[in-house]
Write a structure and sequence with these properties.
Pfam families: HATPase_c (PF02518), HisKA_2 (PF07568). By secondary structure, the chain is of the alpha+beta class. The protein has helices at residues 2-39, 55-64, 72-87, 92-111, 115-131, 135-149, 155-171, 176-193, 196-212, 216-232, 237-359, 365-390, 399-414, 433-453, 498-509, and strands at 396-398, 420-426, 430-432, 461-469, 475-481, 513-518, 522-528. Among the domains are: 58-252, Serine Threonine Protein Phosphatase 5, Tetratricopeptide repeat (Alpha Horseshoe); 396-529, Heat Shock Protein 90, CATH 3.30.565. The chain has 15 helices and seven strands. β6 (513-518) and β7 form a beta hairpin. α8 runs antiparallel to α9 (196-212) and α14 runs antiparallel to α15 (498-509).
Length: 536
């Protein structure tokens, strides 16, 4: 019973203190812009250190203004007139006069190339736009003033320009970081110039900004800093007292904030303890239930596993027997396939031998040549079968060794010795049987034609052979000799030569792109990919 009463009283106290603090913070935020406009922008005439004009002096100066020389003194006069009309602003006409005099001063400053007074003019414009409630132009004019005054030693005016940036941010309710940045820069500049009064003004506004976000520690520190600058500027105690009394408000707010945090923490701790007790009790109950369920499942799993182990053991024995039989079958198939390739190679060699025997009975040179070509073609195919039964993999061909052996065979067949030099550039890769035989036959035809026709009268020459894999996954076979080249009337698309037709037909079988052209000799190019052939 006492515990419930304590909780009710504690909740009411937290609500009362926290509600009062929120109301204070909300009131501060709503009135911050108004306070800022009343404080910083109205700190006095900073453009001219001279005493302001009286009404009679203004009228007198306006009469002789056109007679003044175009120099710095005239700029000062124009700015004093603009400042006077700004200070006496009570209708749009006087404000318009202030703008006109500021524009005349800016024009003359530009003519005299004076960054100092051009910056002062833009600073004056920034204040005038504030009277017109033109927030974007306040910031734009102040930025122009900063860009010019940063090149000069006018530190106070540069600080005032940052004050106007801050004023524009306050009027547009910009985020707190965007409001703090310009006012901090202004404070630093005023400290640098020794302007203690303005430094105090800036730090007082910084304190208010931190107060608006309930950062009472920073708010208190910066207000103390502002008071120290006010005292250094010999400000009257009567003027400093209201600012000092503001410290008491901050202290009270900070104390209330700490009390609220303590009460909240105490409440949270009590709630956490209660939740932990409930959670612990429920956890124990759930743990015991889960433990019983797990024990039951484990026992059931043990019984089931014992039963299934016997079944799996029987099945595993059957699988092992089948795997052994399959392994024997695969071994037999590999042996059989290797034997087939061996016999195909032997049969092809037998055909080559028969063709060689037939040559002895032929007297027609063309027939002899045709049989020789056929022998080379048959050898190109038999070499593939030889490599297949000699390799571990019975379906792919190592292309570098195949091309090299086929080249050596052709060199020996034509007995060219050293008259023709072969230059090979073969990438290391393998091709399936479906591509190896067409590539070998095309290679045989191209190299045979180069040996027979490219170098008449046993002239010396060279044949460049390359088979490379491109970055896009395609393959390119190039056979290029430096011989006499193709006849002028040669038509690769309408040629009766069996070799040309054979190369074009084999290229089409593997969906390759076949080209033959003159290029300082004859150049045959075949580009293909490993796309499976269509069945139809």
């Amino acid at each position: 019973m006492h515990s419930n009463q304590y909780r009710i009283v504690l909740s009411l106290l937290v609500w009362f203190i926290f509600g009062e603090l929120n109301a204070l913070t909300s009131f501060t935020n709503e009135n911050q812009v108004e306070t800022a406009e009343k404080n910083l922008p109205a700190f006095g005439n900073y453009l001219n250190k001279d005493l302001p004009y009286t009404d009679q002096e203004v009228k007198k100066t306006e009469k002789i203004l056109s007679e003044l020389q175009e120099n710095i003194d005239k700029i000062r006069t124009l700015l004093k007139l603009s400042d006077w009309y700004e200070a006496s602003f009570n209708n749009p006409e006087t404000l318009e006069k202030a703008f006109n005099y500021a524009e005349d001063a800016l024009r003359l400053s530009r003519n005299l190339h004076s960054d100092i007074y051009a910056g002062k003019c833009y600073l004056q414009f920034s204040m005038l736009y504030q009277l017109r409630n033109n927030d974007p132009m306040i910031e734009t004019s102040a930025k122009k003033a900063i860009a010019l005054l940063a090149k000069t030693n006018q530190i106070d005016d540069l600080g005032e320009s940052w004050v106007m940036i801050w004023s524009a941010k306050m009027r547009t309710h910009a985020p707190i970081e965007e409001r703090l940045d310009p006012i901090f820069k202004a404070a630093v500049l005023f400290e640098k110039s020794g302007n203690n009064k303005r430094s105090g003004d800036c730090y007082r506004e910084i304190s208010e900004l931190y107060f608006s976000i309930s950062d009472f520690n920073h708010s208190s520190n910066f207000l103390k800093k502002a008071i120290s600058f006010y005292k250094a500027s010999h400000l009257k105690e009567s003027d400093i007292y209201p600012i000092s009394s503001r410290l008491n408000i901050i202290y009270e707010a900070e104390k209330r904030n700490r009390d609220i945090i303590k009460l909240k923490n105490k409440t949270l701790i009590q709630q956490s303890k209660l939740k932990n007790e409930v959670f612990l009790r429920n956890s124990m109950i759930i743990f015991m239930i889960l433990l019983l369920i797990i024990l039951g499942l484990l026992y059931k799993s043990y019984r089931f596993k014992k039963k299934t182990n016997k079944i799996l053991e029987t099945q595993q024995n059957e699988i092992n027997k089948k795997n052994h039989a399959l392994q024997n079958l695969v071994t037999e198939k590999e042996w059989l396939l290797r034997e087939i390739h061996h016999r195909v190679k032997n049969n092809l060699h037998m055909v080559v031998g028969l063709l060689a025997s037939q040559i002895e009975f032929l007297k027609n040179e063309e027939a002899v040549q045709a049989i020789n070509n056929s022998q080379n073609r048959i050898h190109a195919m038999s070499l593939i079968h030889q490599k297949l039964y000699q390799s571990e993999n019975l379906s792919i061909i190592d292309m570098p060794s195949y091309i090299f052996e086929l080249t050596e065979y052709l060199k020996d067949s034509f007995e060219i010795k050293n008259s023709i030099r072969f230059i090979l550039d073969i990438d290391s890769f393998t091709l399936p049987l479906s591509h190896s035989i067409p590539i070998g036959l095309i290679f045989n035809e191209a190299v045979t034609n180069a040996i027979k026709y490219a170098f008449p009268n046993n002239e010396k020459g060279k044949i460049n052979i390359s088979l490379n894999k491109n970055d896009n996954g395609n393959y390119t076979l190039v056979i290029h000799d430096n011989g006499i080249g193709l006849p002028p009337d040669f038509d690769p698309y309408n040629n009766p030569s069996l070799g040309i037709k054979l190369m074009r037909g084999l290229s089409a079988d593997i969906h390759g792109k076949f080209l033959i052209a003159n290029a300082n000799g004859t150049k045959i190019t075949l580009e293909f990919s490993l796309v499976e052939n269509n069945p139809d």
